[in-house]
């Protein structure tokens, strides 16, 4: 048979666990997490985020700045590709037409 100290320790441990669970549910109900309003849920999210996760706000800002920076880099890269491809096309177009142009220049100089 278990001693009364062991039994009361197990009972206290169980009561503590139940208290944590009940407290968590109570807090979410009081804060309106279980309401049907979508606006209220957003407010609860922002409140929890501001209270418990200030680092998350900073991380979100940094991620947004990184995305903006990457977008700028991508736009610049795409413009560079367009200019490069345009230059390559012009060079090869000129090489393709060079025999005809040279022939025209020679004919004009002989006239």
Verbal overview:
With 111 residues, the chain is mainly alpha-helical. 90% of the residues lie in helices and 0% in strands. The protein is rod-shaped. The chain has 2 domains: 1-52; 54-111.
- Characterize the main sheet: none
Number of domain modules = 2
Count up the helices: 3
Q: Element order, helices and strands?
A: HHH
Rg over C-alpha atoms, rounded to the nearest angstrom? 36 Å
Class by SSE composition:
mainly alpha
For this structure, the quaternary state is single chain
How many strands in all? 0
Instruction: Report low-confidence residues grouped into runs of 5 or more.
Output: none
Portion in beta strands: under 5%
Task: Return the average pLDDT rounded to an integer.
Answer: 80
Name the helicity range. Answer: over 70%
Whole-Å distance between the termini? 124 Å
| Inertia-based shape | rod-shaped
GO biological process, one term: cristae formation
Family: Belongs to the MICOS complex subunit Mic13 family.
Membrane topology: Single-pass membrane protein
Protein name: MICOS complex subunit MIC13
């Amino acid at each position: 048979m278990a001693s009364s100290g062991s039994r009361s320790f197990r009972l206290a441990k169980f009561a503590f666990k139940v208290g944590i669970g009940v407290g968590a549910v109570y807090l979410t109900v009081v804060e309106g997490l279980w309401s049907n309003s979508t606006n209220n849920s957003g407010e609860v999210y922002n409140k929890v985020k501001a209270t418990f996760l200030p680092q998350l706000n900073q991380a979100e800002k940094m991620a947004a700045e990184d995305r903006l920076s990457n977008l700028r880099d991508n736009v610049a890269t795409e413009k560079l590709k367009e200019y490069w491809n345009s230059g390559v096309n012009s060079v090869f177009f000129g090489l393709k037409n060079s025999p005809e142009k040279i022939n025209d220049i020679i004919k004009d100089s002989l006239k």
